[in-house]
Amino acid sequence: MLLSIKNVSKKYNNGTNALKNISFDVEKGEFISVIGPSGSGKSTLLRSINKMIDISQGSILFEDKNIESLKKTQIELVRREIGMIFQSYNLVERLTVIENVLHGRLGYKSIIAGILGIYSEEEKKEAFSFLERVNMTKYAYQKCSELSGGQKQRVGIARAIMQKPKLLLCDEPIASLDPKTAENIMDYLKKIVTELKITCIVNLHQVDIAKKYSDRIIALNKGEKIFDDKAEKLTEKMVEFIYKDQE
Ligand SMILES: Nc1ncnc2c1ncn2[C@@H]1O[C@H](COP(=O)(O)OP(=O)(O)OP(=O)(O)O)[C@@H](O)[C@H]1O
Description:
The chain is an alpha/beta fold. The protein has helices spanning 42-49, 72-80, 97-102, 111-116, 121-133, 149-162, 179-195, 207-213, 236-242; strands at 3-11, 17-26, 31-35, 57-62, 65-66, 82-86, 167-171, 199-203, 216-221, 224-230. The relative contact order is 0.20. Bound molecules: adenosine-5'-triphosphate (ATP). The site of adenosine-5'-triphosphate has 12 residues, from helix 1. Adenosine-5'-triphosphate (ATP) binds at residues 12, 14, 16, 18, 36, 38-44. Keywords: ATP-binding, Cell membrane, Membrane, Nucleotide-binding, Translocase, Transport.
């Protein structure tokens, strides 16, 4: 088991109960989509897993380690194993594509080496090979600020993979893209994580995309888990139920 979420609840300081007693296990190599109406807790769930936020109750086990009880240095080590892809790409816009991909290795470097941008030949070779996988080699020395959204997200994928994560968390990776580019990004993502055997959890608004690309779908509504099954088990009726009181 790679990840085990046990009875997790999250109450924000303002009183919002964003997650209510959520439990599920994730096996190595699974591709899981998390769907649900806006405000149902999808981002909160992802941010809890890599400890960007603290949960209020329950436990999260990553490779059998309870991440709630880890010390700061141990959390850094766990974070290294968990890659993130964001809706807003989170690239350093003024830097080049290849520099952004190399940033995926920052968690493995001393602060000085990171600041000075010192990377081994091996790392540089690898960064180029990941750029090749997302068909971005010809943009390697272009500034990220000059790229389209779809191109930026391809860099985001290469950077996340450069980190050599065991688990990849994608928070609405295609929400800012047009439908055709969105599918293109999902194609790259699915192909790469399948080839590299990386476990993937993706928050999505698009049910059709979730069904097309995932092995398994988890649905949240008002912080509760209301569906967790194989993608093909998600019927039209169930989709209606999941989105029944969309704001
Ligand atoms: N930092 C915060 N402080 C207080 N409440 C928050 C915070 N972040 C999120 N919430 C609330 O928690 C609930 C769940 O939010 P979350 O962003 O996890 O949902 P979501 O399903 O990802 O939504 P969306 O699809 O719109 O991104 C919402 O009611 C939201 O307003």
